[in-house]
Amino acid sequence: MAKVKTTFFCQNCGAQYAKWQGQCTSCKQWNTITEEVIQKPEKNDWKVSKSSTKRTSKPLKIHEIDTSVEARLDVQDSEFNRVLGGGMVNGSVTLLGGEPGIGKSTLLLQIALKLKKKTLYVSGEESQKQIKMRAERIDPQSTNCYILTETKTQNIFKQIEQLEPDVVIIDSIQTLHSDYIESSAGSISQIKECTSELIKFAKETATPVLLIGHITKDGNIAGPKILEHMVDTVLQFEGDRNHVFRILRAHKNRFGSTNELGIYEMHGAGLRVVSNPSEILISEKDGELSGNAIAATLEGLRPLMIEVQALVSTAVYGTPQRSATGFNAKRLNMLLAVLEKRAGFRLGAKDVFLNITGGISVDDPAIDLAVVAAILSSNEDVALPNDYCFAAEVGLSGEIRPVQRVEQRILEAEKLGFSTIFVSKYNKFNHKSTSIKVQLVSKIEDLVNFLV
Known about the structure:
Mean pLDDT: 85
Structural class: alpha/beta
Helix content: 25-40%
Number of strands: 23
Distance between the termini: 83 Å
Strand order of the largest sheet: 8-7-9-10-6-11-12-13-14
Low-confidence stretches: 48-55
Number of helices: 11
Shape: globular
Oligomer: single chain
């Protein structure tokens, strides 16, 4: 018998200690260190299949390294490919996190059913019949997807040796357990061990592996922080469960940019790719309404037109309310102070409510001007023309500041049929290259004089 030993792990950051202590010296959290039993017998590593190519590493001079673009696997999903940087890289390990019920399993099952390659979908949370019922709603014609319900990594690798899949999907990493560790599934030591085994398999066989990860109540991926360091790509699937839109972001990507963004629409038959989100995020109206303004924003490298709604009313209880949905509330207070100080609008005794339509959150400072325009429109009860849009940042002294990549915003507005876009006077771009009217403003007073 191998000797059983115990060690102490911080449940917050995964730091390991030889004995218990009250505070974790790594993350400074109290009472997060727990004892876990570890027993490591000799590992009989799974055998690499004959068709796989085990890579041997040797030092190379930097000028001898091949920098040609590595071939990527098209997952038959334009948004997923965009976020990954053009597709999955052979041997990469991707971790997908998100809230319960947001659609993580649906998204990866949809990809597994669409792939032309042999795919193994391993589930430790659902039975094969449950997955079959969900798959029938998405794509009942798939013939390349294999379903395995197993939580023991040794048994999973035995099935992988026999099947030799081109892609492996694990749902989820917190449900797996290894015989090499004698702690319960989901513990820090089990997550680290199971992930390291899957990473070794991916690198030795050049097989892409997709992992689903649970998240904590704070929105972080459950388990040790080292889990995110071990994998190649960390994706976050987010959105409001009361809305149909879902957003896929990359928090880490060793093979591409983390600025890209994917947008999906949830339907009964799965997730639908939204190729032109600007048309969906702008609500359709019969007539012009006060308090609405269109902002030209950027999510990653993609320009979007979003609708900003504001409601300004008299405070009933004497204490004015400031509420923002999808926008930073502190920045809203700053913009209200600028309006009161620089433009003379008395908003201190009024309630102000702000909403970004579509259930998405935006932190681009370029929507400041649209927020100000929506507040002015609601306060004066004057509707803005539907073909006006805005793209500029507002400073504390009331100046209209330039924003990056304004040409892309102008081209997106022109493509969607807007007649006028308001930008900063200090933005440098080619005015003659577009047919849309570009209205230049330098101070917030210029906007007020133009709109009110």
